[in-house]
């Protein structure tokens, strides 16, 4: 959006996205912008997977709504990857990588929400060291 309408428009869009995250508190304990279009959200998973699924659906619906910038409407196509502590990782970095892996594993799927699953991960093919 910044490329199309300038940095002010991009800032306005980010503010609206921030408002979406803010509206979902207190369920979202923390939100961090990782890259230009990637965010990490910390949610207490103590209420179980159904709670996380419902939260992810609600987050997706709100992020997919119209952003109004400079008199125009823009729509995001948010994709959400979910990983759960401690089942999927012990550190923030590991959890983020696994959530990202869940997204990548989704491929061309029309699904917008992907949960990490260790069973669904494929291991890299073994490499053979050739004698020199």
UniProtKB/TrEMBL annotation:
Top-level division of the source organism's lineage: Bacteria
One Pfam entry name: GGDEF
Residues annotated as domain GGDEF: 1-118
Residue runs in coiled coils: none
InterPro entries with a match to the protein in the record: Biofilm_reg_signaling, GGDEF_dom, Nucleotide_cyclase, Rev_trsase/Diguanyl_cyclase
Protein name, entry field: GGDEF domain-containing protein
Organism listed in the record: Massilia eurypsychrophila
